Automatic annotation (TrEMBL):
<dbReference type="InterPro" id="IPR029055">
    <property type="entry name" value="Ntn_hydrolases_N"/>
</dbReference>
<keyword id="KW-0808">Transferase</keyword>
<dbReference type="Pfam" id="PF13522">
    <property type="entry name" value="GATase_6"/>
</dbReference>
<dbReference type="GO" id="GO:0005829">
    <property type="term" value="C:cytosol"/>
</dbReference>
<dbReference type="GO" id="GO:0006002">
    <property type="term" value="P:fructose 6-phosphate metabolic process"/>
</dbReference>
<feature type="domain" description="Glutamine amidotransferase type-2">
    <location>
        <begin position="2"/>
        <end position="220"/>
    </location>
</feature>
<dbReference type="GO" id="GO:0004360">
    <property type="term" value="F:glutamine-fructose-6-phosphate transaminase (isomerizing) activity"/>
</dbReference>
<keyword id="KW-0677">Repeat</keyword>
<protein>
    <recommendedName>
        <fullName>Glutamine--fructose-6-phosphate aminotransferase [isomerizing]</fullName>
        <ecNumber>2.6.1.16</ecNumber>
    </recommendedName>
</protein>
<keyword id="KW-0032">Aminotransferase</keyword>
<dbReference type="InterPro" id="IPR017932">
    <property type="entry name" value="GATase_2_dom"/>
</dbReference>
<dbReference type="GO" id="GO:0006047">
    <property type="term" value="P:UDP-N-acetylglucosamine metabolic process"/>
</dbReference>
<dbReference type="InterPro" id="IPR047084">
    <property type="entry name" value="GFAT_N"/>
</dbReference>
<dbReference type="GO" id="GO:0006487">
    <property type="term" value="P:protein N-linked glycosylation"/>
</dbReference>
<keyword id="KW-0315">Glutamine amidotransferase</keyword>
Amino acid sequence: MCGIVGVTGNDNAVSILLEGLEKLEYRGYDSAGIYVNDLNGKDYLIKRKGRISELEAAVGPDVHGSVGIGHTRWATHGVVSEANAHPQFSEDHRFYLVHNGVIENYKELKSEYLSNTTFASQTDTEVVVQLVDHFVQTEGLSTKQAFLKTLGLLKGSSYAFLLIDSTDPETLYVAKNKSPLLIGLGDGCNVVCSDAPAMLNVTHDFLELHDGEVVTVKPDTVEIEDANQHKVDRKRFTLTWMPVKPIRDLIHTTC
């Protein structure tokens, strides 16, 4: 099982993402990566094969930001490589995506919509992020509209997606079907994770997501919509237990 983490609204995004990925190591993986944006025109994509410790070693002191996404990958489509590791990105580097699950019809979608697109990986995930970009560029759709249209074309037993548009990086776009995802709620900071322990050093308040829902996450707001694009009002739940073994000092990362 792959692992997903995301954060928006916290200046210690790098530490939060790396800590979260470490907490998800139990799910198994062969590569890992993060994408971080500082909201001031600088962004960073770092991916490595092997252990998260190798990713951490590659993250230099200049890498910083208040929003980002991260992923631990278990290879399904394509060999174990940095190119196939997540986050995957669109050809113009506008969109970045992490993904759990399998897209059964990715070859058909690639052939139908993306025959003129240059791909950087062998993954089904890249097809999804390229499709979002394609619909924004060719049909003038908003990021959310393009994301929804792409989701409607996918065939697969399960998926979980976390998407960033680098032109509006504070907003995270989230969707799931039969693959676990949670939203963690903070004060001026919200997070996304495959499993709550990944973010217990940040928050103890969470929202459960249901299959078919699409969620827009900003630092101060979370908007959930069902498969018919009707807004959903869901109560948070609180976990009172503490993480067993903090791996680094996150005193300043709590929302």
